[in-house]
Amino acid sequence: MKIAVIGTGYVGLVTGTCLAETGNDVFCVDIDVDKVNRMRNGEVPIYEPHLDVIFDRNIKAGRLRFTTELSEGLDHADIVFLALPTPEDEDGSADLSYVLRVAEDIGKQLKSYKIIVDKSTVPVGTAELVEKTIAAQTEVPFAVVSNPEFLREGFAVDDFMKPERIVVGATDETAIKEMKRLYAPFVRSGNPIIVMDEKSAELTKYAANSFLATKITFMNEVANYCELVGADVDKVRAGMGSDSRIGNRFLFPGIGYGGSCFPKDVKALHKAGKDSGYNFEILDAVINVNDAQKVSMVPKIKRYFKDQVAGKHFAFWGLAFKPETDDIREAPSLYMIEALLELGATITAYDPEAMPNVKAKVGDRINFAGSMYEATENADALVINTEWSIFRTPNLETLKNNLNQAVIFDGRNLYDVNEMALEGFHYISVGRKEIS
């Protein structure tokens, strides 16, 4: 099938590459000339495990091409995916300006029937807005489909190639038939293609992300309470997660969620509810608790250093909002950086992938190390923000020798409390006893 994907961010590039991998002829469209040239030369502009392999394979096979011209992609395609950014607006709503601007351009250039697919995460009613925007510019027939993505950064290729479900929001029978045909190779194991109306499809994505964010946040609140009463959140989590009605995923406590999806999607659903006269009170709490959780290590740091944080030097392990990505959007590490710098501390950080992005954001306000151990040299304490695999089994002797004091503030609960006690560390984590 002939496909165009408008936008080559995380969603667009993964979508285009994976559709090419199943034999489709794909044009990816982006207005960034430099980015398009780099992709034409085989450079993947984002870090996403396994994407580079299929990206290179499909470019060489001629199934994956790139252009800056919308008309080229539009003339080529039968199905056009809109994978455009919908950033958080000042009032918390989703900014649809990119989506609607491209929809208007499509309407002006449409020459024959196309299926226009909203792949971006958008609020309820967006498919209707896109349809009206295109229709205002053309009399050529077309269909608009809502097809939300459920990709986890770090696992996006696997999630696209082996989806748990595919949601198609459409009422146009031709569009439904073609979307089923497009996705048939991805659901051969029997996972469902769920067809529904456009508004329900749009809400499904927001509801799913908001529920997962709520689950994470509830566990963080339980962890905070464990610290007050002397319970162990690891044992509580195991007891809860063994209940099949709850499940054990997204029950790991830490220093809050971040990234490009959960923060803006929760706020967007909350704002959309208000616009419709409904207050999502649960989401109110989720937003407030997560904001506080991102800097929940700061009071512990202040307490340990008896409020004498000025002049202290901290090593940071991890900057990305989660492992296996270079994405730092709403990353807790950024909030920790600002909080500690404001207290007069200095920081040397290490992350396997995200350091260039953080450096572009904070400049020379912090230092960056070439390795995880280099970051800890002459530091007064280690702060762990991201649970990269390389941080899970460190050389504790090297770590202890590098640090001025054997102190770890672990925002991701990477280590066993009792083992750290035996190794002589003062170890402070989330929802578990503090040991020294």
Q: Explain this structure to me?
A:
It is a single chain. The radius of gyration is 24 Å and the shape is globular. Strands 3-2-1-4-5-6 form a six-stranded parallel sheet, sandwiched between helices. The protein has a six-stranded parallel sheet with strand order 11-10-9-12-13-14. The protein has three domains: 2-196, 3-Layer(aba) Sandwich (Rossmann fold); 205-292, N-(1-d-carboxylethyl)-l-norvaline Dehydrogenase, domain 2, CATH 1.10.1040; 294-428, Rossmann fold, CATH 3.40.50.720. It starts with a strand and ends in an 8-residue tail after the last strand. Helices cover 44% and strands 14% of the residues. The mean pLDDT is 96. With 436 residues, the protein is an alpha/beta fold. Helix 5 packs parallel to helix 6 (126-135) and helix 9 (198-229) crosses helix 12 (281-293).
Which key features would you list for this structure?
436 residues, alpha/beta, Rossmann fold, N-(1-d-carboxylethyl)-l-norvaline Dehydrogenase, domain 2, six-stranded parallel β-sheet, 18 helices, 14 strands, globular
Mean pLDDT figure = 96
Helix content: 40-55%
Give the helix/strand class: alpha/beta
Largest sheet: 6 strands, parallel
Strand content: 5-15%
Tell me the count of domains.
Answer: 3
Please tally the β strands and state the result. 14
Oligomer: single chain
Total helical elements? 18
